[in-house]
Write a structure and sequence with these properties.
With 341 residues, the chain is α/β, with parallel strands linked by helices. It has ten helices and twelve strands. The chain has a domain of 233 residues: LigB-like (Protocatechuate 4,5-dioxygenase, Chain B, 3-Layer(aba) Sandwich). The strands form three sheets. It has an eight-stranded mixed beta sheet with strand order 8-5-9-4-10-1-12-11, with helices on both faces. Strands 2-3 form a two-stranded antiparallel sheet. A two-stranded antiparallel sheet has the order 6-7.
């Protein structure tokens, strides 16, 4: 039988692959944006956000603070990579979201599992891309059609297991034209940053967090996660499985209260608290919190051993992201639980 030996959660923002000295280049786009989504579901411009909130984070939106946060994030990512290396999984199930990379408006399933032999990345390069995008694409493994190992047998098992449990999941097993459609940053970042050059077979789960109307409710994400855990446990081979939630937390307007609410619910294994998160708070980039909630369903009963949180305010009015990192071990593991974030 397969065993879940490790659960991990990590943000995958460009800020994690862009040195702190360059975060201001990313922040420059916020000042011009008219598509900032607040946690109550409103779409506002930066000018409107500033008029409403003022500039309470001016002392945090500095290069010195950006460098400090970048360094702290790299330490956290190294710790996640250490956890992965120590667990030595046979396969990694990555819960991510797709942003017009593998799927588009012509086909947008609520939940899909890829069970191909090769996970092929979608190169992202546009003439209009700003300079800061070049290192980000490389850090996301989206600078070329990179190929990572899949696990067809395990992926198909999970698809069949969900179907048997009344979850009508979509499936895919080939990437015929990666220049047109392929895997995106939610998966490439994990392989590039955490695998440390090792070839670990992966099964990508593509959760539609971004694009209504086919976005699963928070409670549904958790419940599907529990059904995935059941299917994993019934896999007939002796397989060590790591499950990783890729993405989040709140962005593009940082909401530390929301982020801590999510992380505390995960650490407490509180399904009702996760299900109660309002859907208006899960729009745009903040929608990736759903990936963490699905992870919560899968690793229910496991022991949280470490959690770290850093709210990033890259502009004085508070645009940015909540950086979250966490790890869970099997309940029988001899590890101490860290404090709440």
């Amino acid at each position: 039988m397969a065993r879940i030996v490790l659960g991990l959660g990590t943000s995958h923002t460009p800020l994690l692959v862009l040195e702190g000295e360059r975060w201001a280049e990313r922040a420059a786009e916020d000042f011009e944006s008219d598509r900032l989504i607040t946690s109550d579901g409103r779409n506002v411009s930066y000018a409107a956000l500033k008029a409403e909130r003022g500039e309470p984070h001016a002392q945090e939106a500095t290069e010195a603070r950006f460098v400090e946060l970048f360094q702290a994030a790299q330490v956290a990512l190294d710790r996640l990579a250490d956890e992965l290396e120590a667990a030595q999984p046979d396969v990694v199930l990555i819960i991510g979201d797709d942003q017009d990379e593998m799927f588009g408006k012509d086909n947008m399933p609520a939940v899909a599992i890829y069970y191909g032999a090769h996970v092929v990345m979608h190169p992202r390069k546009k003439v209009t891309d700003p300079d800061w995008r070049t290192p980000v694409n490389k850090g996301y493994a989206m600078d070329a059609a990179h190929m990572f190992a899949g696990h067809p047998e395990f992926g198909e098992w999970l698809i069949r297991g969900l179907i048997a449990r009344d979850v009508d999941v979509a499936s895919a097993r080939v990437v015929p034209e990666p220049e047109e459609r392929g895997f995106g940053h939610a998966y490439g970042f994990i392989a590039k940053r955490l695998f440390r050059g090792r070839s670990i077979p992966m099964v990508p789960l593509l959760l539609n967090t971004y694009f209504p109307p086919s976005t699963p409710r928070p409670g549904r994400c958790y419940d599907i996660g529990q059904k995935l855990a059941e299917a994993i446990a019934e896999f007939p081979q002796d397989l060590k499985v790591c499950v990783i939630a890729s993405g989040g937390l709140s962005h593009f307007v940082t909401d530390a209260e929301l982020d801590r609410r999510v992380l505390n619910a995960l650490l407490a294994d509180d399904r009702d608290a996760m299900a109660a998160i309002p859907e208006c708070a899960l729009l745009s980039g903040s929608s990736e919190i759903r990936n963490w909630i699905m992870l919560g369903g899968i690793i229910s009963g496991m022991k949280p051993v470490w959690c770290e949180y850093h709210p990033v305010y890259r502009t004085p009015s508070g645009t940015g992201i909540g950086l979250g990192f966490a790890a869970w071990h099997p309940a029988s593991a001899n590890s101490e639980r860290n404090q709440e974030p």
